[in-house]
Specification:
alpha/beta; 44% helix; 457 residues; Aspartate Aminotransferase, domain 1; binds pyridoxal-5'-phosphate; 2 domains; Aspartate Aminotransferase, domain 2
Length: 457
């Protein structure tokens, strides 16, 4: 570990003793001391006391501008007043019915008006949404295989846990990526049904269809890969996928768990002008409550109506989450709020770019809607393999450095990105940029030393 990074880690440890103590207690009963593996990092994760608007406070009372926002699930920001008001009203009138109610058609209308789908079903998590979408696609086509992209994350079901973060030499040739289970416990039969292609490389997708004629039900993707930092589709890539899927009688599934709410008013299909057959929504549509949906053409969803495909769930359309979701669609994800977030996003990105140029740091800033990331690469990454070349210590230096200056610039892990919520302010962005300016020189110096040391070897 190099001295400037060690210094930031020492500062972090000095500032957060109560988090260290709490993590020790958690570790006794909870694996890794966290409730989701993504929340674990060294030396220990920050424990949160409370949050409001665009800020949160840790157990030691340190205040942070929050661009983690629950891994991007809070475009609304914390405790958005409209969401809180709707939820509080619901809390005293029943929190679960397991029976239909009026908010269901209301929220279904909101979703169908905004996204290119005719009907929807609801759930509580992104995992559920992509799981049911894949099952429906398999049922609609009578085929078992799907194509996913290397490095893409679609949740935790067996069809999603393939080639999420595969390592060399297991992952094979980039033109013909291997199917690598993302951990133990994923049945071989599931892995065999998940074919892997390379993002931004249509030839690898065509190859899968050529090798598996009449066997592929769907291509599932995040229109922007958001689990390798922020990796944008190159011109023509999404349209090319649309054409390949149509030509081969397969469905195109946009996993819009992140992009659906955060890219803009109409999600990825509006942003890129490419129409999928199915979309999966979760995270920010719930405004801080567990809410998900998957939507598609009536002809596909009829399989559920005809009792040919099964979909259920005790927590589906629970009134608390539905009230939150309605408030989100009507009062949070408005065109005015998108304009506000875009303006802040531009300011943040321009500020970062200026500081990167001034400091000589070899990095670029990627951006899309409410999201962005400082990408520690000499040129724009196109796929998962490009992403793996990052200097992890340098990224940790950035992240802990920002945290020590009161800015959680993004979730921990270099495969994530920042989110700007509708509650962030110009002052938040200015503070964020000041923190980055404060640390950029030290990052650039460390980077140059490390590159020189590597060149010398
Ligand atoms: C693109 C994408 N799809 C699906 C999921 C899974 O969502 P959840 O964690 O709500 O199950 C995630 C979560 O990070 C995601 O980013």
């Amino acid at each position: 570990m190099y001295p400037a990074l060690q210094k930031e880690l020492d500062t972090f440890v000095r500032r957060t003793p109560k988090s260290a103590e709490a993590h020790k207690k958690n570790l006794k009963r909870i694996p890794l001391g966290v409730a989701s593996n993504y929340r674990a990092y060294d030396p220990y994760p920050i424990f949160v006391k409370e949050a409001q608007g665009s800020h949160f406070r840790d157990l030691d009372g340190n205040d942070y501008i929050d661009h983690n926002l629950c891994f991007g699930a809070l475009m609304a920001g914390h405790c958005h007043p409209a969401v809180m008001k709707a939820v509080e009203k619901r809390l005293s009138t029943g929190t679960m019915f397991g029976m239909p109610h009026n908010m269901e058609w209301e929220l279904a209308e909101e979703i169908c008006n905004r996204f290119p789908v005719e009907t929807v079903r609801f759930g509580s998590s992104g995992t559920e949404a992509t799981m049911h979408a894949v099952r429906l696609a398999r049922a609609a086509t009578g085929r078992d295989k799907i194509v996913k992209f290397e490095g893409a994350y679609h949740g935790l079901h067996d069809s999603a846990l393939v080639s999420v973060k595969p390592h060399a030499p297991e992952f094979g040739d980039v033109k013909n990526p291997e199917q690598v289970p993302a951990g133990l416990g994923v049945p071989k039969a599931s892995v065999a049904n998940v074919l892997v292609a390379t993002f931004n490389d249509l030839a690898t997708v065509e190859r899968r269809f050529r090798e598996n004629p009449g066997e592929i039900a769907a291509v599932i993707l995040e229109p922007i890969l958001m689990n390798v930092g922020l990796c944008l589709p190159q011109k023509g890539f999404l349209q090319g996928l649309r054409e390949i899927a149509t030509k081969n009688g397969a469905l195109l599934i946009f996993d819009e768990v992140k992009t659906g709410a955060k890219l803009g008013w109409g999600g990825a299909s509006e942003y890129f002008g490419v129409m999928p057959d199915m979309i999966c929504l979760a995270k920010s549509i719930g405004g801080g409550f567990p809410l998900a949906a998957f939507g598609t053409h009536r002809s596909v969803m009829d399989l559920i109506s005809q009792h040919k495909v099964f979909h259920g769930g005790t927590y589906n359309t629970n009134p608390v989450s539905m009230a939150a979701g309605l408030a989100v669609f009507r009062e949070v994800l408005t065109r005015e709020n998108y304009a506000h977030v875009d303006k802040l996003g531009r300011k943040l990105v321009e500020g970062y770019r200026k500081t990167v140029a001034k400091s000589g740091l070899q990095a670029y800033v990627a951006e899309a809607g409410a999201n962005g990331a400082l990408m520690f690469y000499p040129q724009e990454i196109r796929n998962y393999r490009d992403w793996t070349t990052i200097d992890i210590d340098l990224w940790r230096h950035y992240w802990f450095g920002m945290v020590n200056r009161g800015v959680m610039a993004q979730p921990y892990w270099w495969d994530e990105q920042w989110t700007i919520s509708v509650q962030h302010t110009e002052a938040d962005i200015e503070k964020h940029l000041t923190a980055f300016e404060d640390i950029a020189e030290s990052l650039a110096a460390a980077q140059q030393e490390r590159m020189a040391a590597m060149a010398a070897h």
